[in-house]
């Protein structure tokens, strides 16, 4: 049984990934755009008011929560919890949200998750997902260190060669053969 939470024990890391809050501004613009036909002919176009309401609902509803226990996916009308044991991997299609590939062969769309959010998922997953950016940064740093070491080694070799050449020129000509 885990210990009870107190002010001294860290809370489990949960990270909520949602659609940007700027999307609400787009909903306001949509309301402004549909207002012209509504004011022009209210009887025919009053149904257009539902479009900004649906847009606000979607922005508020769609999200993916990442925790050490798994993923919680909230879509338009449903909520699904996925344990890490059920997730085989992730797929990042072009111009679309990420998809979690499950061990049973199905896929689940992860709302608001893109490849850019992968470092956040890596941290919140408790190490179950690797961060490709961190791996690339480590590889770049290792390559730079290797190049610096090779440059330092070649500098030492050139100094030794120049010392040998200098020693050979300092000797009188009759001793050089």
Low-confidence stretches: none
Query: What's the helical proportion of residues?
Result: 40-55%
Helix/strand/pairing category: alpha+beta
| Beta strand % | 15-25%
Strand order of the largest sheet: 1-2-3-4
Number of helices: 5
Characterise this structure.
45% of the residues lie in helices and 18% in strands. The strands form 2 sheets. The chain has a 4-stranded antiparallel β-sheet with strand order 1-2-3-4. The chain has a 3-stranded antiparallel β-sheet with strand order 5-6-7, with no helix packed on it. It is an alpha+beta fold. The longest helix is centred in the C-terminal third of the chain and has 39 residues, at 132-170. The chain has helices spanning 23-40, 42-45, 50-61, 118-124, 132-170, and strands at residues 15-18, 63-67, 70-74, 79-83, 87-91, 99-102, 107-109. It is built from 5 helices and 7 strands; from the N terminus they run E-H-H-H-E-E-E-E-E-E-H-H. Helix 1 runs antiparallel to helix 3.
Secondary structure elements and pairings:
Elements: E1 15-18, H1 23-40, H2 42-45, H3 50-61, E2 63-67, E3 70-74, E4 79-83, E5 87-91, E6 99-102, E7 107-109, H4 118-124, H5 132-170
Antiparallel strand pairs: 1-2, 2-3, 3-4, 5-6, 6-7
Helix pairs in contact: 1-3
């Amino acid at each position: 049984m885990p210990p009870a939470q107190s002010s001294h024990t860290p809370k489990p890391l949960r990270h909520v990934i949602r659609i940007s809050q700027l999307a609400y501004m787009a909903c306001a613009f949509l309301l402004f755009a549909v207002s012209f036909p509504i004011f022009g002919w209210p009887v025919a176009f009053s149904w257009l008011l539902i479009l900004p309401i649906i847009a606000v609902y979607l922005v508020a509803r769609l999200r993916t929560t990442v925790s050490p226990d798994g993923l919680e996916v909230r879509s338009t009308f449903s909520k699904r919890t996925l344990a890490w044991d059920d997730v085989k991997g992730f797929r990042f299609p072009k111009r679309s949200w990420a998809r979690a590939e499950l061990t049973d062969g199905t896929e689940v769309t992860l709302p608001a998750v893109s490849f850019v959010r992968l470092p956040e998922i890596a941290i919140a997953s408790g190490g179950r997902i690797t961060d490709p950016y961190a791996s690339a940064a480590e590889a770049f740093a290792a390559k730079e260190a290797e190049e610096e070491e090779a440059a330092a080694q070649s500098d030492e070799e050139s100094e030794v060669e120049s010392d040998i050449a200098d020693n050979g020129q300092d000797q009188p000509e009759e001793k050089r053969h």
